[in-house]
């Protein structure tokens, strides 16, 4: 029996009880009022008026009763129609929709939900997920998992959202975006739970395909960059070897150039390995001040030759957790880039600041700056602004900072200089 027929039958039962009650009350009214009026010392000429008044009251009370009954009937019918419209809408939805009471018993579920769990021919009303799991063994684990996720929604006391996946009988994996809305009485007691699950299987498949496509695209770009960077030195080596073969002479200058080009290829491969392959890390507590002092010492002489003023302020006492050699590599790359941006002199400032659980290092130069369009590509493999650069220095540096659970931001303005802002977490007793 569908919901509309159930409501109609309910209306009929209510009307039967109402008519029966009306008949009983009317008989009692007539008998009692007749007995009461006969006992009253009423003059004969007034008795008819009393009977008329009694009849009028009966008619008025009957009219009030009928009005209330009809009004109630109309309200119930409107509620039934609204409920039927809502159920029709819910059943037409391509999403899983169910209503549970405060004890987790199923009160209502749409046709999609019944088909999803294979419960089309099961009287589910009043049954919990554990009880329904006995009717559909394939979905037993999924239904039992719902008990735990429902409890999480009750405990959260607010709308929760999560992705749930399970296998269908045909082996297909289904993924649903599930929203659970817990309802409570005013006293805080559990009232009900609304569960809505949207099938996002195709969306997840599309996301995975897109991610795979992006990875293949990145691999293609990286391969093209590697080929370009390695082809140049190989071309030079090949040319010099052909020249020596034709002239049958070995020129020391050409040999040195070939050795330099081979070393360049080796550097490219080494930095690529740093990017692509996890390396053994020597992580331990270390003073950031020691790292910065060491790096500044490396470039003191070069800065003097280029007429660059280097300033380090304030000197930090921060302790961080990481690999000292890798962090030195990061700051060497940044300082070297800053000096190369000021061939005619300038100012290089390194400042540090401890804040909350982090230490911030800011390296600023007064060099020529970087155009905004080019700044967007800084850090991409093989993207460089230098004639002889490989475009892997900043890429490697950013990877190292990320592995140290830090961040790096680069800001620049043409004609004014570049600002590199780095954040690293402070060392704690428990580095994890």
UniProtKB/TrEMBL annotation:
<dbReference type="InterPro" id="IPR004358">
    <property type="entry name" value="Sig_transdc_His_kin-like_C"/>
</dbReference>
<feature type="transmembrane region" description="Helical">
    <location>
        <begin position="49"/>
        <end position="70"/>
    </location>
</feature>
<dbReference type="InterPro" id="IPR013656">
    <property type="entry name" value="PAS_4"/>
</dbReference>
<keyword id="KW-0418">Kinase</keyword>
<keyword id="KW-0812">Transmembrane</keyword>
<feature type="domain" description="Histidine kinase">
    <location>
        <begin position="225"/>
        <end position="428"/>
    </location>
</feature>
<keyword id="KW-0808">Transferase</keyword>
<dbReference type="GO" id="GO:0005524">
    <property type="term" value="F:ATP binding"/>
</dbReference>
<feature type="domain" description="PAC">
    <location>
        <begin position="160"/>
        <end position="212"/>
    </location>
</feature>
<dbReference type="GO" id="GO:0000155">
    <property type="term" value="F:phosphorelay sensor kinase activity"/>
</dbReference>
<keyword id="KW-0597">Phosphoprotein</keyword>
<keyword id="KW-0749">Sporulation</keyword>
<keyword id="KW-0547">Nucleotide-binding</keyword>
<dbReference type="InterPro" id="IPR036890">
    <property type="entry name" value="HATPase_C_sf"/>
</dbReference>
<dbReference type="InterPro" id="IPR005467">
    <property type="entry name" value="His_kinase_dom"/>
</dbReference>
<dbReference type="InterPro" id="IPR000014">
    <property type="entry name" value="PAS"/>
</dbReference>
<keyword id="KW-1133">Transmembrane helix</keyword>
<dbReference type="Pfam" id="PF02518">
    <property type="entry name" value="HATPase_c"/>
</dbReference>
<keyword id="KW-0067">ATP-binding</keyword>
<dbReference type="InterPro" id="IPR003661">
    <property type="entry name" value="HisK_dim/P_dom"/>
</dbReference>
<dbReference type="InterPro" id="IPR036097">
    <property type="entry name" value="HisK_dim/P_sf"/>
</dbReference>
<keyword id="KW-0902">Two-component regulatory system</keyword>
<dbReference type="GO" id="GO:0030435">
    <property type="term" value="P:sporulation resulting in formation of a cellular spore"/>
</dbReference>
<dbReference type="InterPro" id="IPR000700">
    <property type="entry name" value="PAS-assoc_C"/>
</dbReference>
<dbReference type="InterPro" id="IPR003594">
    <property type="entry name" value="HATPase_dom"/>
</dbReference>
<dbReference type="InterPro" id="IPR035965">
    <property type="entry name" value="PAS-like_dom_sf"/>
</dbReference>
<keyword id="KW-0472">Membrane</keyword>
<dbReference type="Pfam" id="PF00512">
    <property type="entry name" value="HisKA"/>
</dbReference>
<feature type="transmembrane region" description="Helical">
    <location>
        <begin position="17"/>
        <end position="37"/>
    </location>
</feature>
<dbReference type="Pfam" id="PF08448">
    <property type="entry name" value="PAS_4"/>
</dbReference>
<protein>
    <recommendedName>
        <fullName>histidine kinase</fullName>
        <ecNumber>2.7.13.3</ecNumber>
    </recommendedName>
</protein>
